[in-house]
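Summary of Year 1 activities. Much of the first year was spent building the evaluation harness for sequence design. The harness presents a backbone, in tokenized form, and records the residue chosen at every position. We chose the following record to illustrate the format because it has been used consistently in internal testing since the harness was completed.
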């Protein structure tokens, strides 16, 4: 059975994810293939509106609460993701569960008064709520240093997590996730180059999947089930 491919684009803040997701959408549409772009957090839902207020520093929440809200935001779309894939539609997803883990786990790493080993926001705790979500067929990590992102991207620092120390820690956790997922499912793209060069590399990795993927939609971290 052939189904749509599930492509996730991840990266630090201002790494070019949304730009490249939009360009990839255009390329797949130009190939006359069914495709849909999703973005997380989905700020249009009731849960997403709470997240949006938090990210814009208009409200405060306990770290555990906001992490679970991010996960709930993905779960409320999970059945739609699976249905679209099974219908033959390719999905491009701008951020997914990996961002949730990377950002929340990084909070513990920058708490000098609380060693990571004693914090409830451990990597394993942060991963647990997203176990068994639909698994991507390919995750593209757009890698750029926080310093370069701050220099090159307009509007840097406008949202809560756009701080150089935080972004550096997030990058470390993303590296751990990539190692865990493995080279077949996780590809690192140098996002410090021109948009055209990055787009070319992304298309090289995605184009073989555009015709469809064989087999059922897998569960994320199904080895932990």
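For this record, the design step produced the sequence shown next.
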């Amino acid at each position: 059975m052939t189904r749509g491919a599930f492509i996730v684009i991840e990266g630090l803040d201002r790494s070019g994810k949304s730009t490249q997701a939009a360009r990839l959408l255009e390329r797949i549409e130009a190939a006359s293939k069914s495709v849909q772009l999703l973005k997380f957090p989905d700020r249009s839902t009731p849960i997403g509106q709470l997240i949006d207020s938090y990210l814009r520093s208009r409200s405060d929440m306990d770290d555990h609460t906001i992490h679970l809200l991010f996960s709930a935001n993905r779960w409320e779309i999970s059945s739609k993701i699976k249905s679209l894939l099974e219908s033959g539609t390719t999905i491009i997803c701008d951020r997914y569960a990996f961002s949730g883990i990377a950002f929340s786990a990084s909070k513990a790493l920058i708490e000098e008064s609380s060693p990571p080993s004693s914090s409830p926001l451990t990597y394993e705790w942060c991963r647990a709520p997203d176990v068994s979500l639909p698994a991507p067929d390919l995750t593209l990590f757009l890698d750029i240093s926080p310093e370069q992102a701050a220099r090159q991207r307009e509007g840097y620092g406008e949202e809560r997590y756009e701080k150089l120390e935080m972004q550096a820690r997030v990058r470390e956790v993303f590296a751990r996730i990539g190692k865990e997922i493995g080279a077949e499912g996780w590809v690192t793209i140098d996002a410090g180059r021109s948009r055209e060069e990055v787009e070319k590399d992304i298309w090289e990795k995605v184009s073989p999947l555009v015709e469809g993927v064989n087999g059922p939609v897998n569960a994320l971290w199904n080895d932990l089930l």
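The first strand starts at residue 2 and ends at 3. Quantitative recovery figures across the full test set are reported in Table 2.
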